[in-house]
Hints:
Layout: H1 2-18, E1 29-35, E2 38-39, E3 43-44, E4 75-81, E5 86-94, E6 102-111, E7 114-124
Antiparallel strand pairs: 1-2, 1-3, 1-4, 4-5, 6-7
Amino acid sequence: MASLCLLVLLLLCLPFISVAYRPGDIVPMSKMGQYHSSRTVWHDVIGKHCPIFAVNREVLIPIAKPTGYTGADPYKISFQVGKEKFLVPWLFLINRKSSEVPMIDMHLRYSGGDLHGVTAKIVDMPHHCM
């Protein structure tokens, strides 16, 4: 009887164990763009472009040119991150105050295997000297 109770307890806890992230897990991410007054739908980002849990890294995310793009109007992008779908507010990629290539600096806040939030900002891509 005790082993049956233990088995039931383990089965009840299993969903909570499986939703936790482990270092090296891909954190799912979706993106949406806006140009003029037209927004795209949410598009899943391919795993190699997604954040990796507890890993500091840089990735290049391909961003398609919006339909009717002239460069005169701002182009914004937003992200949903994690199974929890933390929302990153609109970030201006084009038509911002800098003429440098934009880079999105994204930070995931976590504790143990739990994702607690995401922050992101646009910064100028650093110039690397060779």
